[in-house]
Phenol 2-monooxygenase
Amino acid sequence: MEGEQTDFVWGVLDMVPITNFPDIRSRCAIHSKESGSVMVIPRENDLVRFYIQLKEVERDPNTKTESREFSGNVDDKKAKTKGRIDRSKITPELILKQAQEILQPYTLEMTDLDWFTGYQIGQRVSPNFSRHNRVFIAGDACHTHSPKAGQGMNVSMQDTYNLGFKLALVCKGLAKQDILSTYESERLKVARDLIAFDHKFSRLFSSKPMIPNADVLDGADMDEFHQVYIEGNKFASGTIVDYEDSVLVKKEGANAPDDNGCTMHPLASKVPIGRRLYSEVIISQADARPVHVADRLASDGRFRVLIFPGDVSTHPENMETLHKFQPFIDSKDNFAKKFTPVNAFSDSVIDIITIHGSCRYNVEFYDFPQFTRPKDYKGRCDYWKLYTGIGNTYHEGDIDAYESYGIDKKKGAIIVARPDSHVALVTEFSTDGLNAVDGYFKEFMLPQNDVVLPEKDVKGHDKKRFVQPRLAV
Amino acid sequence: MEGEQTDFVWGVLDMVPITNFPDIRSRCAIHSKESGSVMVIPRENDLVRFYIQLKEVERDPNTKTESREFSGNVDDKKAKTKGRIDRSKITPELILKQAQEILQPYTLEMTDLDWFTGYQIGQRVSPNFSRHNRVFIAGDACHTHSPKAGQGMNVSMQDTYNLGFKLALVCKGLAKQDILSTYESERLKVARDLIAFDHKFSRLFSSKPMIPNADVLDGADMDEFHQVYIEGNKFASGTIVDYEDSVLVKKEGANAPDDNGCTMHPLASKVPIGRRLYSEVIISQADARPVHVADRLASDGRFRVLIFPGDVSTHPENMETLHKFQPFIDSKDNFAKKFTPVNAFSDSVIDIITIHGSCRYNVEFYDFPQFTRPKDYKGRCDYWKLYTGIGNTYHEGDIDAYESYGIDKKKGAIIVARPDSHVALVTEFSTDGLNAVDGYFKEFMLPQNDVVLPEKDVKGHDKKRFVQPRLAV
């Protein structure tokens, strides 16, 4: 892996503190003038996690010559390190003593020690995440960084989450193997961005604080630190992960990236393409229940085509357009049928969801075309394909997904979401738009017209079919 | 048990319907003109529960003479019954056929039958729920009614929930055995109210609908039916259960009951005494997290004394009053210590929670008296005793528990909640009020000053002590 070992050494304590520090139950960072820094993370029950910068820790002299850990191009940095720490010398008492110095004049004592550790911050990333689209590495195998951004486990899981749906599509014979190369192109950038952030954050954290109005302004600027701290929350939420244009993400036709780096299409002017679709509340046409888009887009390996036909009650021509979609969707040559094995549930590869922009009371369930209430092999209706994006809910108040997504209620739009809920494509609400969706899938999906699954047993009971994870079943 | 068997027979189907009835995913009731009624209750996945009134079911002729089921005073009603139904004659197909007739002109077919049953509505209640404060019956053993109010399991669990905390208090030697007599006085009334409601509801449901503007206005008035339907939701939520004045509920000093039968004290003019304390969001002073009062009042057998000192920032004299509570609470002769065994956690019988009415930022955690941040045998602070009732939260918006509970921010109030969260007492925020709280507990609690539990092990780890259920430990 490429990167560096730093000389900053940290200790971690999970314990129930006895202290008169008033903000002990708030997540906070304390920069002492001379004694280093501590990060306070309140946990469940009365536990508090402390990340504490350690000043004096014995080094293992042998590690000064060790080079296995460092890649060729950071030799200059390696030369400057003092060597690796001797972890056996780090005790809870040593960590506590340092924390007490940092927290002065407040007092700190330790009870109910739950766990502790010590580590040296290393920031490294592998130059490759895969070989021949057949061997893949993820998580700690390809990137390491300090734990303070709270991203070690999160980013690692997201690696495999990204890889998982692609592997499933390829292994099930639904998509071309080419799509697997997007794993590295998408996740390597995330790892590099994260390590760049961690680099900045760790150094700000480990540095002395700058004393405002002092004669010499050195050390970490606390305003900058606060800003970077807030930036870190975006990593924690995962919402700034932005995948570049590829076979799976189509940014053409969109506006140039905005100040936050978001690429938006004019038809859905608040939906960043390549990022996870932000969840909004929508209301089921069938039963008036509010549901979060994120809950409706369960991670079960399926793509979603979200059709926003606009306010079909005020604009009847939009309802006409929607009805024109029916023959397109029925055709065996188009995405809705072409990529789904024969005898599989019709939505088990690509799930088509319609979110209209009319008040639920102004339209009827049966006003909409048949594809918004598909029937299965037993004749059972799927009631969970048709929603309204506007209305009022008891717990969530007024909702307007059209407003939140920046979709005009006259123009409408179509959004394609990948199985990981990242936005793949934004296009117009029209048969042309539907053709664009078709083009998207035809680039990497494999036709299934000749793949025949066993016929389903009409006498069997499968009342959970709409809620269990499934892909091409 | 006293009560009656009706001649109304119902069938129940849990199945996935195939229908063109548009409201199949909404809870609704359908009164047909001639064929009876059906209640539609959408369930998880695609299941729908149907309650269907059956017209022709064979009776078991022997039951006409059976009297074991009926108490003496309903002999006249028994004489009129046609006898008990023969349940073996009720099949899913028979129930479905009836439902199809009721739903006309809409169609209804059945797939994925999950469960079915048939029953005859009986409404009976036992005249006694206990003997000698030593033997108790609960649930179906003392009340039966139709299942359509959704209250069979709920009311039965509430019976034992009511009994449970009283038994625990008595068995642990904390309270006098007398309190057990409130089980019958409290729950018998609930059972009678419920059966009276069920009686009205079932008859409205089972009757023909009244045809508006017809020559002869007979049958069930649909407006009245709708009103009773809504009333039923209050039973379902449990919020109208109202316990009368007793050793455990003190309504003296309160206003006369209002139109809804709620008895409120002027100092907390929206808190019905004897009913479950309605949950409001409050904000922890220590960590700014919003928490529902209901979550803070976990059902762990403990009483809660909720002190509302008002806006202590605008009214410093209120903070002074609060500080005067400290010696009272410290005294071994008063409720806070007197009824808790020696060496038990100080809040393990009576939990004192302070909810002030100032903006969290205008007061400091350490401005408040020591009893709002008690320390345990290890010196660990309990951070979960002090809250503000006003402020702004991300998910819940602006909150004002003082407004919701009808408590004046200058006067304040004290509320005592029983272990089942029913409001026991509302009194003034003053040492007089604290004395009233003391009087409440002294009436039925047993002094524990001489009950000495083993000393706790200072070296043991018990980091979960604040969250695990406990009573006098």
In short: Chain B touches chain A at residues 16, 18, 20, 22, 24-26, 42, 45-47, 109, 111-114, 284, 286-288, 364-366, 378-381, 383, 461-467 (CB under 8 Å). Chain B has ten helices and 21 strands. The longest strand of chain B covers residues 2-19.
